[in-house]
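Supplementary Note 3. Input sequence used for the single-chain structure prediction.
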Amino acid sequence: MSVVFESKRVRRPLAIRRVTVARVTEVAPTMVRVTLTGEELQGFEAPGPADHVKGFFPGPDGILAVPTIADDGMRQPEVGTVHARDYTPLEFREQGENGPELDIDFVIHGDDGPAAQWAVNAKPGDTFAFGGPRGSLMPPEGASDVVVVTDETGLPAARRFFQNFLPEVPVTGLFFLTDPDLRNYLDDIDGGTRQWFVGDEREAQAEQALRGLDIGERTFVFLAGEAGAMVPLRRYLRRELGLPAGQMDASGYWKRGIVNLDHHAPLDPTDPE
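The predicted structure, written as discrete structure tokens, is reproduced below.
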């Protein structure tokens, strides 16, 4: 197979924004949508479907430690430990109910981690700080169709893929979930094909569904979710189908037993790019 895609990467100056929670909406028992507002959102951009921002959260001691920006880069604060997690900026509105607004969806795996604990207890008026995105990888040009395979944590990115490509380019989504209530996550988006898998065999069912798709030379594939579940999917695409690296984007958003996984790290160390 030959690579037919052109994906432009846009770099941006490093910026950290302090904003305020405007409202909190329960999307499902395991997901809340936090709407942020504030003047520091002016100029925010995140056009890439898989863009991410780094949110900063109070630690067990209650201290919100936020890095600062200096001429030589980012500096750690003098007091406190930085607790940061990456999130997809779901939707930005220059003119919201309270000025510029940004929606971020938080998946709640439990309330023991700093990010989940903050999201569970977030209320209007709370402060929040985040950095980025440092850059955007624009939607690939030249795709005849797009396949998206994710768990709950990749749903915001999946939503952005559907919005970026439909209706001109067909999009197929394969979603394996622990919370069946999230099966309506994309109901307000017309078009595309979605398959939802829940239960103990959801990861295997998603892989089987992926193997049943007709993936051609111009199919772009996006994989995101629990790192261990992504490895066999990536191996199928790379080793069995022979897809080149430029025809797919595979990321581990989290990993069982690992705190604050670096999703930029190689997903499969036995098969690096």
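The mean pLDDT is 90. The first strand starts at residue 9 and ends at 11.
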